[in-house]
Specification:
Length: 136
Amino acid sequence: MSDCIFCKIIAGEIPSATVYEDDACKAILDVNPAAKGHVIVLTKEHAEDVFHISDEALSNAICVAKKVAAALKKTYQCDGVNILQNNGEVAGQTVFHLHIHVIPRFKGDSISMHWKPGEMPSDLAETAEKIKANME
């Protein structure tokens, strides 16, 4: 898409620090990182979000994210890695081209992605059945 910043990065119109590239993905350092080494895996197939991407492109992207996570662990000896993919503005998506964040994590870092666990719902089985009815 001509107005998509990630499509422009993939096309080489905007420079990036690339850590990996194949026929389906490009992994670059995030210019506004949550932590040093924060990588974004971009799908070369333009799709707004997980609801619009092909299964093949999504599968390849998560495999690339796994490779990146292993490289980050080896590079930084980090204590953990977040692999995060947001869908929709309310979920934190700011660029509407499917991408996966791979963020190295360290004990005591200031990154916060936590939520307060709620109480166990009494209608778990009913909720599960409603969701199952919409599985494709």
